[in-house]
């Protein structure tokens, strides 16, 4: 297995107006874990999504959706409970506003025991994130167990802190991050979205240094259109964003970045090259609606990289 993603796929109801006004929604499937898994699979990696989905109609549809996008669904297990969902609309400033319908979902009951049969030790790269860790104490334990198992077997652990104030608090998420970081090869906080609540800084360099101080081997601090600051004990490297041809929806750009980065690391790319591929995939994801509306293929990523001048 190249890439294993652990987390909660969600049914996505999206509207282009504020949720207080929306009465018509577009239905799709998203969530950080699904977005990353679909992106990694489309980039050519054998990718498994490890999760529990509900024993309802949406659980069945989610598995079919993931399979249709080339994801290995062997460890997408059904129920008991319901499939999580979110509604996303625009807030008055044009930013995305999320409303979750996921409390007590099947995925939030996942724990280390659900991972016992998953061959984690064979994974080249694990992708996990702060959203999963914030779902419940058992999910936090599952993330910890997966990171220790994959890392312990020589695999690469990628952790996207993805702070969500509706799921956790800055002190709780920071505590978890601090505990996990020594088991992490690459942290991918966004700045300032994650760095401000979790690392108490809006400065990308400070954020990267804070990640290394926590014990992570490297950090890729994502900065929206300003690209990525990559930091490792070897030093800093700025990787510019690939300009998007047009922007339909920002949802999932960070997840596409992480998924493709993981796929490329599993394929043997050096970290800066994998990051560049991630920025290209993110730029392509911006042109589609929702987290999985437009998913970049390996060929599209390579073509876009070839057309984007190296700094
Ligand atoms: N407007 C944009 N134009 C081009 N690339 C973008 C844009 N917004 C995001 N990206 C790409 O997606 C990556 C992740 O975006 P970012 O906003 O930092 O994270 P997140 O989506 O997790 O909040 C960025 O590092 C960049 O490569
Ligand atoms: O909030 C959650 O729990 C979700 O999973 C919703 C979204 O699908 C992703 O989180 C989007 O993430 P970005 O890549 O930061 O745009």
From TrEMBL:
InterPro entries reported for this sequence: PfkB_dom (IPR011611), Ribokinase-like (IPR029056)
Top enzyme class: transferase
EC number(s) per entry: 2.7.1.45
Domain spans labelled Carbohydrate kinase PfkB: 2-293
MF annotations from Gene Ontology: 2-dehydro-3-deoxygluconokinase activity
GO terms for cellular component: cytosol
Pfam families recorded: PfkB
Domain of life: Bacteria
Alphabetically ordered keywords of this record: Kinase, Transferase
Protein name from the UniProt record: 2-dehydro-3-deoxygluconokinase
